[in-house]
Amino acid sequence: MHEPLVESSHVTNEVEERFPQTMDREFTEWFQGVVDQFEGPLVRYARRIIGDIERARDVVQETLLQLYRQDKTSLTGAIAPWLFRVCRNRALDVQRKEQLMSSATELDLQALPGGAGPEEQLVQLETNDRLLGLLELLTANQQEVIRLKFQNDLSYREIAEITGMTVSNVGVLLHTGLKKLRSLMKDGNSDE
Amino acid sequence: MSVPEADFQEDRLTAYALGELSAEERADVERQLAGSAELRQELMELQSLVADLRTELAAEAMPRLTEVQHRRIQTEVGVLTTVISEPVPLKTQNSTRRRSIRHWAILSAEVACGFAFVGAVISFAWRGPLLSEPMALDTVSAKSALGVSENRRAKDFAIEASRVAGPRAANANFGTDDYTSTFMSRPADLLVEAEVVPADNMKRMKSSGESFLNADVSDTWHELNVESKLSKLSQLKPEPMDSPDGPSRKPKPHQVTETARLDLAREQRFRYIPPEKESRSSELADLQSGETYQAAPENLFLTPAEQPLSTFSIDVDTASYANLRRFLTQGQLPPANAVRIEEMINAFTYDYPRPKEGEPFSVTADAAPCLWQRGHYLARIALQARTFDKSKRPPTNLVFLLDVSGSMQAANKLPLVKQAMTMLAEELNERDRIAIVTYAGDAGVKLASTPGHDQTRIMQAIEALQAGGSTNGAAGINLAYEEAIRHFNGEGENRVILCTDGDFNVGISDDDQLVKLITEQAKTKVFLSVFGFGMGNLKDAKLEKLADKGNGHYGYIDDMREARRVFNEELVGTLYTVAKDVKIQVEFNPLTVGAYRLIGYENRALAARDFNDDTKDAGEIGAGHTVTALYEIVPRGQWPKTPGVDPLKYTATKDPVPAPVAPPNNIAPEAADDLFTVKLRYKLPTADTSVKTVDYVVDDIAGKNVVPSTDAKWAAAVAAFGMHLRQSQFKGTWTLDDIYEAALSAKGADTNRRRQEFLDLIQSTKRLSSISRE
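ok -> structure tokens follow
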């Protein structure tokens, strides 16, 4: 069902991030490269889902370890969607458990979507003033798709793979999300 | 597909903007776009939102795992295998070291990869920055802050690696020792490490640059790997710490096999341009993309005692600004050579006096304290061209020369060209003419010169344009000029507008020949505008040169916003030349000026004698354009900065430190307090001989309480930001925060919001810099 996609970034994703079908040692080296490149984006992603930096880090650590333990023959295709998908599922698991355990602590966690150090809080403050602030007004689904697309440069198809939606669902969500953002921006501008 | 019918159209547009459609679907959307201004507006808004989103999202905090977690993973993996866990004499703490070692394997591979390409192409790329491109390569828009941080880390790491590797590494010098800066001279050692992560390596190259590699490159890598495996252990043995510039030995044959070399040569799209030693930042970025930028070493401080005259051509281009905005918006710091400060400054509008009746432009100049360096002055020379009322503009004879080669297919290239052309065509009337010539394989006239009011025919021709084929620039250029000359309008403006990504690859692809062709055609009094589109294989240097030689103007268009600005809002200024070959000469007074430095205009410098030589080509100025040039001036009393060496005892040479200048006898007493005098020469658009303006004198400001005007402050902030991006040695004491503060205070009315956008760019840079410092 996938048509050949045109924008070159997809070509990139398809060709570049294949799992190496090689010996153990090379796999290890390759793995370290993956850790290096993806730990940041994954922690950022998981933290959006869970709301807590430490739990997000744990999720990412487990995701990466799962990659290492994975039966290599079962790994085919691009690495990024695989990582994000596994990370997402783990994060959702954690979040579900948290919600069952206590709603009070959960509230705290939601209120502080970072547990960030002063430096990070500064960044938050700087960027929150415009689009990121508005982004918070979209549905969680829309936000997630937008972040996967524009923050992590994944294609519709890869996002579908990660979230379990259909490709056209992803397209519609992105579209409605962007449309909402634009109308929110227009409202904001007319207030100025 | 199961998309709801109601959402179909808009949904498609989003997918189109994001490059998610098949070629067929895309063509369909383009047809609809051509027919609907509303839809084009929609697309433009969408693209600008997406660009903003990318910027802001790229800047979101991206914490990494903790050190404990890293160790946990490494224990599990049992890494730090024998080879790479060998002690390496680094003077860093343990935890850092582990991380460094880990990076070693990966990052050195990346660096080595860049070097292999250098190795393959350096022999012929070395002499000139511009080379023919054997393959038309489509671009990849792999962006994200990630790419940048990887880049940066690769560099830091490479520097560290070279420190460790010591003199052994110097073996694989390519014989271009002249500019092999610290980390650049070690391809062999770095290459040895390349084997460990071929796949990762490829990925990195792609995600951080903008070119893509064919899959067979990985084979190339494996080939290299086998070769280097044997020597790996010995190569990695710790070497005593040594000076990073250890003794340079004779170049020995590189370890790349001939096959690999050929593969790499076939793959070549990394052209190496000797960088300035100071600005390392640019090198990897340049190597990893197919974009080429001409190195332009910064102007240095000169003393009026030795060189009282500073001569340069004006430059009204703004391409560099649009281009670096594109980089920053995508979460990447631009390569230093892509930053041309004068083009940044001139991208903004300033409030300069209008020219007197009958004069093409006004000239003003002033001096004020320099904001980034205490005690220095910042002098400003400003030109303001006269303006036309849009409705009173002269008739126009336009020939669009469009690159429709395969590489123009991307959504931000030909489709954007078509939208831009449609916008422009809508402005034309019965006094105007427009023609369309394409080049790709065979050059052809797609629309013979047509009166501007025949909108249906024009729009149909625009709509029918399609990309495909390879590029024969020369034939197209000839055809376009022929078409323009056939309908030459003696009363109006005659202009060829070249829209391309610059990838000429069939026919004349040699730059010198192209430039010669353009220079020849420019004698016909048909002006040339060059617009660069797209990204990834933008041949910035080549396009600027073409526009320069063709008596024209070079712009870079990255999105609909910029297209609208250039083709619609600035149509008149872009198209109507009010003066050509405009040269500026400044004479500095050695009695008041210790040293001066022209900021920007590096590739616009002229010899002092060229000023009065009417055969020497210089820049054009269009209706409504403003041109600003800045000089940083060190007052006489503060120069020289450092104590010079003692006078030589045995050799009678010129004193290395310029001796204090005695006042010349012939200086008029009233001129003794002058700082400098500005002179300009220019030609009217159809004239062959030039006119000189009245001298403009600026007095010394020593001891006077001068405050920079708002516009002067703005220009200073833009210049300072440019110097920051170039990592200039002259950037002074200002931090990005200082620049931001100054710019904010000088923002003024900012009716077109260009200045606000600039402020946002400073913030993005700040975030990107902090990410890459991580």
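Residues 1-7, 80-289, 655-660 of chain B have pLDDT under 50 and may be disordered.
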